[in-house]
């Protein structure tokens, strides 16, 4: 790897690229938060011809990048969640990609956006629909890929946890203490930060639930590969008391 990339955060532990639908792939990665505290972190890769779009980008190892480049060329990098962005600048520079984010999604200041992520955004992902939260204190979005039964890709808003995890035991205990006790849930920490007085988060989630999706994958946790819409609706009901 050339020295020009040494200033970016290094690649962290991750698994192989796994296909979950036609032209949709996921990498289950991780992020070190503190000693003994490593949480899971996922990236979704969408292929359109030979173009690749990264949702919730994570930096891969050199071997991982070699596998990625076998799938196509990364042309677009998309930030969905306000709190995510550690590897966005690296991915944009490494691949010469166009960077999408919502106005004000600047918890990570770099890179500067090349394109605005809004509900009219024409992402190079077949049958994709962007839904943005309107009532949150900071920008957040989801992408619903409405084909093959539908796949909802979120960042932090809705999450699903199941099975083996890349999170350490300490991280899992801390998350449980913060209220991450359900398989599918609105992230408690995200909700605590994002909920604003008077904002109608229910309307935001209702617009997401207007989409059809059998599956859900977020930037953390596991793929929910069946009946995700019902699980998401229940999670929203629990979180918002609707
Ligand atoms: Fe997150």
3D structure, described in words:
The protein is α/β, with parallel strands linked by helices and 242 residues long. It has a single domain (3-240), classed as Ribonuclease Z/Hydroxyacylglutathione hydrolase-like (Metallo-beta-lactamase, Chain A, 4-Layer Sandwich), CATH 3.60.15.10. 23% of the residues lie in helices and 28% in strands. The chain has six helices and 13 strands. The chain has helices at 62-71, 88-95, 169-177, 188-194, 201-209, 228-240, and strands at 17-21, 24-34, 37-48, 51-55, 73-78, 98-101, 115-116, 128-132, 141-145, 151-153, 158-160, 184-186, 215-217. The strands form three sheets. It has a seven-stranded mixed β-sheet with strand order 1-2-3-4-5-6-7. A four-stranded mixed β-sheet has the order 8-9-10-13, with helices on one face. Strands 11-12 form a two-stranded antiparallel ribbon. Helix 5 (201-209) packs antiparallel against helix 6 (228-240). It is globular. The model has no long low-confidence stretch (mean pLDDT 94). The protein binds fe (ii) ion.
Can you describe this structure in just a few lines?
The chain has 6 helices and 13 strands. The protein has 242 residues and is α/β, with parallel strands linked by helices. Strand 8 and strand 9 form a beta hairpin.
């Amino acid at each position: 790897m050339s020295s020009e990339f040494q200033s970016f955060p290094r690649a962290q532990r991750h698994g192989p690229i796994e296909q979950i639908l036609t032209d949709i792939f996921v990498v289950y990665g991780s992020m070190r938060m503190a000693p003994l505290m490593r949480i899971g972190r996922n990236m979704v890769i969408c292929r359109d011809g030979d173009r690749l779009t990264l949702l919730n980008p994570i930096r891969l190892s050199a071997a991982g990048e070699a596998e990625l480049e076998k799938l196509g060329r990364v042309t677009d990098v998309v930030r969905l969640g306000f709190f995510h962005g550690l590897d966005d600048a690296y991915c944009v520079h490494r691949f010469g990609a166009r960077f999408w984010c919502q106005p004000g999604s600047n918890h990570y200041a770099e890179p500067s956006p090349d394109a605005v992520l809004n509900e009219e955004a024409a992402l190079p992902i077949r049958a994709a629909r962007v839904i943005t939260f309107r009532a949150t204190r900071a920008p957040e979005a989801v992408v619903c890929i409405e084909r093959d039964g539908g796949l909802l890709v979120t960042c932090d808003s809705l999450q699903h946890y199941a099975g083996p995890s890349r999170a350490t035991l300490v991280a899992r205990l801390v998350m449980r203490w913060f209220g991450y006790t359900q398989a599918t849930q609105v992230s408690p920490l995200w909700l605590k930060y994002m909920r604003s007085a008077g904002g109608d988060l229910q309307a935001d989630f209702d617009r997401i639930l207007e989409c059809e999706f059998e599956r859900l994958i977020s930037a953390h946790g596991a793929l929910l590969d069946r009946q995700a819409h019902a699980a998401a609706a229940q999670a929203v009901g629990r979180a918002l008391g609707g």
